[in-house]
Amino acid sequence: xxxxxxxxxxxxxxxxxxxxxxxxxxxxxxxxxxxxxxxxxxxxxxxxxxxxxxxxxxxxxxxxxxxxxxxxxxxxxxxxxxxxxxxxxxxxxxxxxxxxxxxxxxxxxxxxxxxxxxxxxxxxxxxxxxxxxxxxxxxxxxxxxxxxxxxxxxxxxxxxxxxxxxxxxxxxxxxxxxxxxxxxxxxxxxxxxxxxxxxxxxxxxxxxxxxxxxxxxxxxxxxxxxxxxxxxxxxxxxxxxxxxxxxxxxxxxxxxxxxxxxxxxxxxxxxxxxxxxxxxxxxxxx
Length: 286
Ligand SMILES: Nc1ncnc2c1ncn2[C@@H]1O[C@H](COP(=O)(O)OP(=O)(O)O)[C@@H](O)[C@H]1O
Ligand SMILES: [Mg+2]
Hints:
globular, single chain, alpha+beta, binds magnesium ion, Rossmann fold, binds adenosine-5'-diphosphate, about 30% strand, D-amino Acid Aminotransferase, Chain A, domain 1, 9 helices, 3 domains, Dna Ligase, domain 1
């Protein structure tokens, strides 16, 4: 059994290689041969067919990137990916994630997709989302809280709408009770294995990269059931789910198909890499 771990080809910092290295070590400890490769130049369309060589050399792929084309090519050639191409695509796009979860009894903040514009000079038109200020504005594709904004009034909303009009984005109800804090839970094989609370003193976004600090958090049964439902609806082998503290309970803010596990391992002491490796080795025997 041979595995390939695919990572983003633009990684540079030592800390960014922590995740693939840990997974490789844990997989090898279980007797699974494992290579780590950058997700670049791995396939093409030639003569009307997919040309790629990974499926010849590897039995399965742990996909730690978000790019959607390579996974589609590999799956078309029969490779089993963790996570699947469809699951990665839905999680990569925050609006698609909310749409996919809707109708499954998963509480989420009110969320409205923005109309997309194709001309630089065009007027952004009237805002008719009916969400009270302050309004959370998110680019549909974004990470580390960096593409998440708060519009406190019409002027701020207008300037964000102008700036983002040519990029997919959404408007969302601001969950005031959760300002500066949320819960990050990691699910493996549809089960919560670790949870932490993230708190920020200086920003409504509690992402670690923006100064949020993780602390252990005993997620209750309601929170666990919610995360497990979301992971199962989206068909995720592995994910990190962000929960907001709403007035009447937890709300799902987003689901990450390739969530980093370094901080949650440090905070909780749970060996996420080993648990994921065990799940991968077990799933691949089937
Ligand atoms: N609707 C919301 N109300 C209040 N805070 C929010 C809301 N949505 C997101 N946040 C905060 O912003 C952070 C980043 O948002 P998120 O959707 O998780 O984007 P990213 O992919 O960049 O992490 C969340 O961890 C949470 O702290
Ligand atoms: Mg997040």
